[in-house]
Amino acid sequence: MTGSTLLFDPLVPLVVLLGLSLALFTLLVFAMVRRLAGWSWRGFAVICLVLALFNPSVKTEDRQPETDIVIVIMDRSSSQKLAGRPDQSVTALAHLTMALETRPNTQMRLVEVSDAQGVGGSLVMSALAQALAEEPKNRVSAAVIISDGQIHDLELVPNLDVPLHLLVTGEPEDWDRRLVVKNAPGFAILGEPVLLSLMVEDQGAAPDAGFADLFLSVDGDPEQRYQIPVNQEVEVEVALAHGGMNILQFSTPQLTGELTDRNNAAVVQINALRDRLRVLLVSGVPHPGERTWRNLLKSDSSVDLVHFTILRPPEKQDGVPVTELSLIAFPTRELFLEKIGEFDLIIFDRYKRRGLLPVEYFESIVNYVRTGGAILVAAGPDYAGVNSLYRSPLGAILPGRPTSRVFEEPILPAVTDLGHKHPVSESLEAFAPEGGWGRWMRQIELEATSGDVLMTGLQERPLLLVDRVGAGRVALLASDHAWLWDRGFEGGGPQAEMLRRVAHWSMREPDLEEEALLATVTETGLLATRRSLTDDAVSALGVTTPSGEILTIPFEEVAPGRYEALISNGELGLYRLRSDDLEVVAALGPAAPREFVQTIASAKILAPVLAQTGGGSMAISQGLPKLRDVRSGRPAHGRGWIGLVARDAYTVQGVQIAPFVPAWIYLLLSAAGLLAGWLREGRRN
User: Fold this and answer.
1) Alpha carbons 70 and 635: distance in angstroms, whole number
2) Cα–Cα distance for residue pair 572/402, rounded to 1 Å
3) What pTM was computed for the model?
4) CA 415 to each of CA 159, 428, 432, 460: distance values in angstroms, whole numbers, following the listed order
5) Taking the CB of residue 437, how many other CB atoms lie within 10 A of it?
6) Per-residue pLDDT tens over the stretch 377-430
């Protein structure tokens, strides 16, 4: 294949040549107007001279024809795996492949698009732009997308000067139901109802349905059932069970004929904050550690502290008239009978029985604990005496029985093997200053009767004990010298951290539960953490993936009582995790990925882009299109066909340049013209 092109390479500068040409043609016009003899022959000579100065040449190219390129984008994202769409996609691709093979001088470039990493969705336009960048623009004849039409990167549509076509998968009778959480707070006040806006939405050719079942489970608890109208936004009131992160799982059952149940569930994480943590601190006698407790509790802005110190016990007789006393009376009945349920934690700091609290008040405290309350006893020497709290009705719930011995000598607190596993005392040794913890100077000897011993002191005797009683918690510290750590004695120790953990464990903070299964989203996947105090190996992690696949992943012990397992399959959606009798629901990415927000196949999203390029869409279920050649800029689709632009591209293999006419011919023709003009003029004269 060859091609020729006429070129001009002036022998003098173009400006000079144009000026000279203008002057010569002006003289020629003047001669023609005056009808001078021989003006036409002289004009012929001028034209030959000007052509010679323009130096015309013929460029002859040896051209190699190039094939037209048709880019085919195959959408293989998750929504393309629903119902019969995979088979439709394969059939459409085979049809295009065969049709393009029979079209002369044509090649097909196939680009497959899967779910986007991280954000999910079908990033078809990004793939098309990348494919166009890798091909010569003058060879691209058209682009064809095989997809359900749910494209998630329309803002990245490339600049196309050829038709873009869409072959739509799916069936006209497809329908799907999805659960949408319209509005959910990230934080809420514990004890106050939370309102969430939800909607069950039917898409496509859905059957008529007035109401739908909605199930709600909080932290894996038994499901609550509601009935809500379909395609209407409703508000659901939820009561949060505990402080910290609450996992709310909403779901609606899959119905026969639905495309998928991947969008029939949603997970909402709400961090429940206590409005105010009400703590009652009762100090039996003033002592140096009293301010430590007060400073610890007052440093937390969420703690509402009520503190009483017994400054004037009943047995004190100093002769001061009662009318002259400025001390506030201890409101025992109001605190321990009428309003005891309003406190989250009661702390007895070196308190002993003085006759201020009758037996019925202690029984009220025991009942308060069994029904979900918490007490913390910081024992001093009085705990070992005859007026010990243990010798009141509280003894039935306290985990340590005093032996009446008090060690007035240096002791070095140490975490037990069980304490290394318990969330209250685990990793406390990491807070040790250089040289280790400082010593305490007093310990009350105890015999552990129940609960867990987390720390020991002199001769490995129990120092810190915790226990669960009914629905409540009890903690017992067998020393009143924890304040020495706060003062930095012999380097000090983690006094604030230890007491904070004890107090928050007593108030049932979820992060300090002994038996727990937690799920955390990381950069590498979903990290499951199992915490346990048992010596037996925990059971393997059972995982139900968003697609319904059931996996079993063994735990790896990373610390005493702490086990981890990583789920790194990358599938987005809801995961259900189980270990022993614990179960938790977590979401990797959105609960319903972008691919399942809209599952009904449609060309509406791409319609403006197709119209701009002159292309069109066609449902595969209604037949496969024929291919036709069209001219650039003309409509490229019709009933049952789509168009391709013939590009006629080529590459130049060689070039030859030769003068259009040899120079001597210009000279000869110019001379002949001048001679003829002279003869014509002489003949006239």
Assistant:
1) 17
2) 56
3) 0.66
4) 68, 8, 12, 10
5) 22
6) 999 898 998 889 999 999 999 999 999 999 999 999 999 999 999 999 998 888
